[in-house]
């Protein structure tokens, strides 16, 4: 490579050579990241299908499902964050051409999923009692507890999916993740319909049926990924689940050391948005409804940087394992540039046509819809900037995770989300009287803080000793 660059210098075409190096990273980043983004959107569609069908049962059932599902999601987020450590560790092993280390990492990722579920299930078993203790209506809590009795069993396959998905991401086989999730969407919709409402001779199980459907959906998705992994010619030689019973505590605790900060970071971020909804609720029902619509739209577009960030996590880790320090920089910065470009396009859409997007969620014949529409479009104007900095922070954070750096980004996240973000939201939303726009601006400020610091740290990676 040095000889090639020297020839380019003599011919006066060094810029062309450098541009070629950067362009060579764009296509693989998109090829890996966009199917992962599509899988995230498909997963959102699965959750939306549950809400739409459960909503037909009535307000009490819908409220109970929201309580139970949010508890489940909190546990899944934390476990998923820990298991996400499989990606950088596996990518680094692949970069070193250490197939055995990669196999051990995936196998211990499955162990983490199984062992994590044991204490998690101790929580879900008492979902009804916990919800009552948190001040929820006892009748709603009882319904939620019945739903959780079935839903809780989907936690294990959902987490095993993340371990296998990590392996497939490292091996640049993300398309199958998208196809498996789309298959899960079909299975979930079909089972929801027959089990919730008792169609085609099945018993009418209502919320319990929705929980059973979730279990079978996660199990089916897991089965598809495992069959593909065991039969695809280039993957089956790794035998990632071979001798699954064999422990490897060194790798197990390495996953925990790297993954625990990731899990805490994800919970902190999720709790930030939950807190923003509470703050918005202080302003009234109409602002809260508008906030929910704006947040839903921003969440859909945010799936693109989520997918690209997972691609960056894998590609940075792979380059680091190869000791390709230039490759680390190209992988990380390419993901950032692509993400900012995508989110800037979405920002323009939010600025130009916010009303038609918001109207998709509203019955315009309802007299309250006009006020919700006005507020939600004003929130989207801020969300346009919000999602650019949010995309920047998730790329910066995952670039660092690819290098095995997770503790300092956790500190950035806690300060950015809970000190700066919440303080700005309170100050601008209530102190300055900006209302919901102020709350959204505060969130954007906290995310911008995390994005700036993580990307500066990635820029200084060599001087900070992160490349050793």
From TrEMBL:
Recorded GO CC terms: plasma membrane
Gene Ontology terms describing biological process: monoatomic ion transport
GO molecular function, one term: antiporter activity
Organism: Roseibium polysiphoniae
Transmembrane segments: 66-87, 108-127, 147-164, 176-196, 208-228, 255-282, 288-313, 333-352, 372-389, 410-431, 437-459
Domain of life: Bacteria
Principal cellular location given in the protein's record: membrane
Pfam families xrefs: MatE
The keyword Transmembrane belongs to this UniProt entry's keyword annotation: yes
Protein location: Cell inner membrane
Name of protein: Multidrug-efflux transporter
Recorded topology in the membrane: Multi-pass membrane protein
Keywords: Antiport, Cell membrane, Ion transport, Membrane, Transmembrane, Transmembrane helix, Transport
């Amino acid at each position: 490579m040095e000889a090639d660059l020297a020839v380019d210098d003599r011919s006066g075409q060094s810029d062309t050579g450098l541009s070629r190096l950067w362009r060579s990273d764009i296509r693989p980043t998109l090829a890996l990241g966009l199917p992962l983004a599509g899988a995230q959107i498909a997963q959102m569609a699965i959750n939306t299908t549950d809400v739409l069908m459960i909503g037909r049962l009535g307000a009490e059932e819908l409220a109970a499902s929201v309580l139970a599902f949010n508890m489940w999601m909190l546990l899944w987020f934390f476990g998923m964050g820990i298991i996400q450590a499989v990606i950088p560790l596996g990518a680094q092993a692949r970069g070193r051409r250490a197939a055995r280390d990669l196999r051990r990492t995936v196998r211990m990722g499955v162990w983490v999923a199984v062992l994590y579920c044991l204490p998690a299930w101790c929580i879900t078993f008492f979902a009804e009692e916990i919800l009552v203790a948190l001040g929820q209506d006892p009748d709603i809590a009882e319904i939620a507890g019945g739903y959780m009795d079935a839903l809780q069993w989907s936690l294990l396959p959902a987490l095993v999916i993340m371990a296998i998905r990590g392996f497939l991401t490292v091996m640049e086989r993300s398309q199958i993740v998208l196809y498996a999730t789309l298959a899960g969407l079909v299975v979930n919709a079909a089972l929801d319909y027959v089990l919730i409402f008792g169609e085609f001779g099945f018993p009418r199980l209502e919320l319990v049926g929705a929980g059973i459907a979730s279990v079978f959906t996660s199990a089916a998705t897991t089965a598809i990924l495992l069959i593909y992994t065991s039969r695809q010619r280039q993957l089956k030689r790794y035998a990632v689940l071979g001798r699954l019973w064999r422990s490897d505590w060194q790798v197990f605790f390495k996953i925990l050391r790297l993954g625990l900060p990731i899990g805490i970071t994800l919970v902190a971020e999720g709790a930030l948005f939950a807190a923003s909804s509470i703050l918005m609720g202080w302003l009234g029902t109409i602002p809260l409804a508008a906030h929910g619509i704006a947040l839903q739209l921003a969440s859909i577009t945010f799936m693109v940087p989520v997918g690209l960030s997972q691609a960056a996590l894998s590609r940075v880790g792979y380059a680091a394992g190869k000791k390709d320090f230039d490759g680390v920089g190209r992988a990380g910065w390419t993901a950032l540039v692509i993400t900012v470009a995508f989110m800037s396009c979405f920002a323009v859409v939010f600025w130009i046509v916010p009303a038609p997007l918001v109207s998709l969620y509203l019955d315009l014949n309802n007299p309250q819809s006009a006020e919700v529409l006005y507020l939600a479009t004003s929130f989207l104007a801020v969300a346009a900037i919000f999602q650019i900095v949010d995309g920047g922070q998730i790329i910066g954070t995952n670039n660092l995770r690819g290098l095995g750096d997770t503790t300092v980004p956790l500190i950035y996240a806690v300060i950015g989300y809970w000190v700066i973000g919440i303080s700005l939201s309170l100050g601008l939303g209530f102190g300055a009287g900006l209302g919901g726009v102020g709350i959204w601006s505060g969130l954007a400020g906290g995310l911008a803080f995390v994005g700036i610091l993580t990307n500066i740290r990635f820029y200084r990676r060599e001087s900070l000793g992160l490349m050793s």
